[in-house]
Amino acid sequence: MTNDDSRSRVVIVGGGLAGLAAASVLAPRGFDVTLFESRPRLGGRASSIVDRETGRTIDNCQHVTMGCCTSFRHFCETTGCADLFETQQTLHFVEPPSDRAPRIVPFRSVALPAPAHLSLTLARMPWFSLREKSAIARGLRALSRDRQSETDDSAESFAEWLTRHRQPEAVQSRFWHTVLVSALSETLDRVSVRHARKVFVDGFLSNRHGWEVSIPTAPLGEIYDDRIARSLSESGVTLKTGTGVKRLLMEDGRAAAAELRDGLHLSADEFVLAVPHWLCGSLLPDELLASNFESRAQPGGRGSCRTASSNSDAQTGSAGASPSRAVSLRDAVGQIETAPIASAHLWFDRPLTELPHATLLDRTSQWFFNRGRESGQDGHYCQVVISAAGELSSRSEAAILDEVETELKSVWPNAGNAKRLHGRVITEHRAVFSPLPGVDQFRPDQQSPIDNLQLAGDWTQTDWPSTMEGAVRSGYLAAQNILARRGESFELPGELPRSLLFRTLFS
Ligand SMILES: Cc1cc2nc3c(=O)[nH]c(=O)nc-3n(C[C@H](O)[C@H](O)[C@H](O)COP(=O)(O)OP(=O)(O)OC[C@H]3O[C@@H](n4cnc5c(N)ncnc54)[C@H](O)[C@@H]3O)c2cc1C
């Protein structure tokens, strides 16, 4: 790394995707970037760990991304890890339990423009009656047309919206819940209409490729802690893992230095605080935490939490915005709730199925991922993801593993003799923020009231739920603000274009 004193120095606190994304924009544009991560590895909530009993490296949880996640894809391309994801052209839905072996129905698009591209596959789902299928079509049409949720999203939960739109119970649990629990990790009564709408419109209705799921072909640690770390180092980022920041120090109303847990201070010109919302309080000065924000939800889907003294023009309220109310940053982050995700990791002495993955309906197990035989290891490894996993908290690990195994063997009866060699459950208790009605009012913009301090993280205002895409966007937006203050620009990747058919039907 060159030692050019004229370069602006940036300190990034947090080596999750938000911090990594900010670094990936700033370093190649001539900034002298130092990133501090308190854990020994990068990746934050998307990382690998070593299973103590077997010594195997496993992911904290299977992570997937979708075609509509354009910033995440851009991040992977610019940091050289796009080849470590495989796009799936077919999903596999497993029929709800009954007294016979369940049918497994492929879910794929046909050569029609969105939103017609998925209509055939929906029409073929045998567990819905004709009446239920027409209710789904009616619900999707109403949701696409529901623009009110963009301006006022605090009134109603998505469960209430579904009841108001006369969605039968089986459709709620087997269609709406199945999609949303995977995307948002919450139950329908804890999901806002705006976030539900975003998932369906961006993911399934407006562009042919939005729904396509991409799955990592390597452990998350190899992607973020290895490949991306190497790419960032090559572009000049100083990565300090295992180095926690105790707090940010202010001087004359500006951020001046990061005080490390070992007492050292590192001064810089710009700071990006990219830690989860529940950790902000201990790192930020009291005067910033107590400063009042105006929370509002604006037309165009941009809910925002901005300070009255913020100089960001982009966030100026416009006609038609819902009434704002003052809330401190401390109170705002205190309002953001979180949801758990659990993953069951199982090794069998033989494969259960050749399918690479499957979505299971009406079961505790939600997504099955077949990781196959691991090289140099005994056993066939698979992972089962259980989102919105609050109900599991009272159950033992052994009971969860038994139930998951029973469910998998009922789906693939030929695997009945497979012997489980090992299993464990990992629960991330604060996996994602809950997309509750009104939550966007409490998500601050990246530009903090302090000129040279940006906030980043999936929880900041990105218009996205708690996802890798949201985290990367927040890092990009923070970097964009830093560049803008120096008269430079960085354009975020655009969203997937909406098809002419979608615009004709729903605009
Ligand atoms: C189990 C699970 C499954 C998920 N599945 C998916 C999925 O399939 N698809 C998807 O898109 N998203 C998924 N997500 C969500 C996704 O992982 C997160 O939205 C994203 O990783 C958040 O990134 P972040 O950078 O905002 O925050 P984080 O990943 O939390 O990063 C913050 C970092 O800051 C560090 N830090 C904290 N305090 C300090 C300090 N004082 N000094 C230095 N460093 C500090 C932390 O150690 C951490 O590494 C899942 C999350 C979980 C937990």
What class would the helix/strand composition place it in?
Answer: alpha+beta
**Radius of gyration using CA atoms only:** 23 Å
**pLDDT average, as an integer?**
91
- Strand order in the sheet with the most strands: 8-7-19-20-21-18-22
What is the quaternary state of this protein? single chain
Helix content: 25-40%
CATH topology of the largest domain: FAD/NAD(P)-binding domain
Strand runs, count: 23
Question: How would a crystallographer describe the biggest sheet?
Answer: 7 strands, mixed
- For the record, the count of structural domains works out to 3
Task: Quickly give the CATH architecture of the largest domain.
Answer: 3-Layer(bba) Sandwich
Tally of individual helices? 15
Low-confidence stretches: 296-323
The top-level CATH class of the largest domain is Alpha Beta
Overall, the morphology is globular
Query: How far apart are the first and last residues' alpha carbons, in Å?
Result: 51 Å
CATH homologous superfamily assignment of the largest domain? FAD/NAD(P)-binding domain
Amount of beta strand: 15-25%
List the ligand species.
Answer: flavin-adenine dinucleotide
Structure description:
With 507 residues, the protein is of the alpha+beta class. The chain folds into three domains: 9-46 and 220-334 and 440-484, FAD/NAD(P)-binding domain (3-Layer(bba) Sandwich), CATH 3.50.50; 106-211, Guanine Nucleotide Dissociation Inhibitor, domain 1 (Orthogonal Bundle), CATH 1.10.405; 338-433, Alpha-Beta Complex (Polyamine Oxidase, Chain A, domain 2), CATH 3.90.660. The chain has 15 helices and 23 strands. It has helices spanning 17-26, 70-78, 119-123, 130-145, 148-151, 158-164, 169-184, 193-205, 220-234, 277-283, 286-290, 329-335, 397-411, 468-484, 500-506; strands at residues 9-13, 32-37, 48-50, 57-59, 65-66, 85-87, 91-94, 104-107, 213-216, 238-241, 245-251, 254-260, 265-267, 270-273, 292-298, 302-307, 325-328, 338-348, 357-360, 367-373, 380-387, 420-433, 453-455. A seven-stranded mixed β-sheet has the order 8-7-19-20-21-18-22. Strands 10-2-1-14-23 form a five-stranded parallel β-sheet, with helices on one face. A three-stranded antiparallel β-sheet has the order 5-9-6, with no helix packed on it. The relative contact order is 0.19. The model is unreliable at 296-323 (pLDDT under 50). It binds flavin-adenine dinucleotide. Flavin-adenine dinucleotide is lined by residues 13-19, 36-39, 44-46, 60-61, 63-65, 244-245, 274-276, 279, 283, 341, 428, 431-432, 457-458, 466-471.
